[in-house]
């Protein structure tokens, strides 16, 4: 069942998502077109997703067609375009035969040697690999990060009960 979106969110007008006013039939067509063109598509829930530790939930659909979990980002990013860049990079790697799993460190996804880590997560009842981004000090483990950054990405921090 689709979640009805009642408030438009500020992001590029060229976007073809439900937040920009597409009806469910148009969204289904768009999703099918994206699956055919790219092998996946991206959903971004930028406001108050109760299943996301930060409220922000960007994720892919379609990687299961290659026998691979989809990807998720819960760290709110400054630009929705960055979400697309990261997902296209990771999905391209999977399409070329690379496989990822829980605990993998990705050293070349971010600029300047910053790390990303993949962890098992659940998005709307399905397993995904969440992409966790290192903090500004290139710390990637939850016990090393600030509590706010760890909670936004891992769902807990070293100070969580």
Attribute tags:
161 residues; alpha+beta; 6 strands; globular
Which SSEs are present, and which pair or pack?
Elements: H1 24-38, E1 41-45, E2 57-61, E3 70-73, H2 80-95, E4 105-106, E5 116-123, E6 126-133, H3 147-154
Parallel strand pairs: 3-6
Antiparallel strand pairs: 1-2, 2-3, 4-5, 5-6
Task: Report on the architecture of this protein.
The chain is an alpha+beta fold and 161 residues long. Strands 1-2-3-6-5-4 form a six-stranded mixed β-sheet. The protein has one domain. β2 (57-61) and β3 (70-73) form a beta hairpin. The chain is globular, with a radius of gyration of 16 Å. The termini are far apart. It has three helices and six strands.
Give the tally of β-strands: 6
Instruction: Spell out the helices and strands N to C.
Output: HEEEHEEEH
Low-confidence stretches: 1-16
Residue share in helices? 10-25%
- Beta-strand residue fraction: 15-25%
Q: How do the strands line up in the largest sheet? A: 1-2-3-6-5-4
What number is the mean pLDDT?
A: 82
| Rg estimate, integer Å | 16 Å
What's the structural domain tally? 1
Q: Name the overall outline.
A: globular
In this structure, how is the largest beta sheet organized?
A: 6 strands, mixed
Derived from helix and strand composition plus strand pairing, the structural class reads alpha+beta
N-end to C-end Cα span:
34 Å
**Secondary structure tally, helices:** 3
């Amino acid at each position: 069942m689709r979640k009805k979106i009642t408030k438009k969110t500020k992001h590029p007008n060229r976007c073809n998502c439900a937040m920009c006013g597409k009806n469910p039939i148009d969204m289904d067509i768009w999703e099918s077109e994206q699956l055919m063109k790219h092998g996946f598509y991206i959903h971004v829930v930028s406001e108050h997703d109760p299943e996301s530790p930060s409220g922000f939930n960007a994720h892919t659909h379609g990687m299961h067609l290659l026998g691979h979990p989809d990807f998720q980002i819960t760290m709110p990013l400054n630009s929705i375009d960055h979400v697309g860049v990261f997902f296209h990079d990771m999905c391209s790697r999977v399409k070329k035969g690379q496989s990822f799993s829980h605990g993998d460190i990705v050293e070349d996804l971010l600029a300047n040697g910053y790390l990303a880590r993949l962890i098992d997560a659940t998005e709307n009842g399905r397993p995904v690999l969440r992409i966790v981004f290192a903090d500004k000090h290139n710390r990637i483990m939850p016990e090393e990060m600030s509590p706010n950054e760890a909670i936004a990405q891992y769902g807990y921090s070293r100070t969580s009960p």
